[in-house]
Amino acid sequence: MKILKNVFELNKAVKNYKNVGFVPTMGGIHKGHVSLIKTSQKNKKETIVSIFVNPTQFNQKKDFKNYPRNIKKDISILKKLKVNYLFLPETKEIYRKKMKSFKLNKSDKILCAKHRKGHFEGVLNVMNRLLYIVKSKHVFMGEKDYQQYMLIKRILGKKYKINIVGCPTIRESNKIALSTRNKLLKKSSIKIASKIAVRLDKLKKLSKKNKFIDLSKYKYKLENKFKIKIDYLEFRDEKKMKLDNFKSKYRLFIAYHINGVRLIDNF
Ligand code: AMP
Q: Could you tell which of 31, 35, 36, 148 is best to mutate to test the pocket of ligand 1, judged by most ligand atoms within 8 Å of the CB?
């Protein structure tokens, strides 16, 4: 595996992007990331993984500082997976060039865009820069971060004329979605997060039979039972992310705070 620390090294190593898949990450590589990498490897000859913890998408400095990092372990996992290239840039390398920044439409300011001000602007800005640098036409992203996947697909997929491939959420056997942030959870919080995931999975299934689920009541119940703070609990359709559209495919979206850690998921 070639480790490339800047654009010069990247351009020298990768001359032709025709058959190269790209998996952007913030590191703390887990089975969720691994599934994206394996999907890329199945579909493309070569794979580039990037690890860059983007400061501009964290709305709190403390959250950025505490984000779990373990680059040595990441490198050893990626080597074992036979990833071809690891792009490992410094912040100044990504933000050197002047580029237009993104603003969200009013209709996009829902779910995490509403509750984490500036977060998706930061995500779109860094992905815009990464896609400008890494010229792969096939990018693999997780449905675990469904709103992020949809925004990037719609806005940047169009801009760069690239294929953004959504990959299913990988879960632990206790139903918790794999996430780098899970490393910040105490044992007791993991137990609760698992119970919540099991309940929401059931609730989604139940919603297919009974469309009249009172989510605000359910949200209140979960908050009291598990002593969590829920930012949102909403059914939205998969395509347009509009509320309560049970006519087409839909998902149940949640973001909540448990012992100082914010988790998101969808079912
Ligand atoms: P992150 O490192 O958290 O920024 O995630 C990098 C990519 O991995 C994003 O496209 C995520 O949606 C995806 N990802 C993270 N967790 C999972 C998971 N449990 N299952 C599938 N994809 C995931």
A: 36
**How many domains, the chain?**
2
Q: What is the 165 CA–ligand 1 centroid distance (Å)?
A: 12
pTM, entire model: 0.97
Q: Is 115 a catalytic residue?
A: no
The three-state DSSP-derived secondary structure of the chain is CEEECCHHHHHHHCCCCCCEEEEEECCCCCHHHHHHHHHHHHHCCEEEEEECCCHHHCCCHHHHHHCCCCHHHHHHHHHHCCCCEEECCCHHHHHCCCCCCCCCCHHHCCHHHHHCCCHHHHHHHHHHHHHHHCCCCEEEEEHHHHHHHHHHHHHHHHHHCCEEEEECCCECCCCCECCHHHHHCCHHHHHHHHHHHHHHHHHHHHHHHCCCCCHHHHHHHHHHHHCCEEEEEEEEECCCCCECCCCCCEEEEEEEEECCEEEEEEC
Residues 80 and 210 in one domain: no
How many whole angstroms from 31 Cα to the centroid of ligand 1?
9
210: CATH: 3.30.1300.10
Q: What is the per-residue pLDDT across 188-235, written as a single tens digit (0 to 9) for each?
A: 999 999 999 999 999 999 999 987 899 999 999 999 999 999 999 999
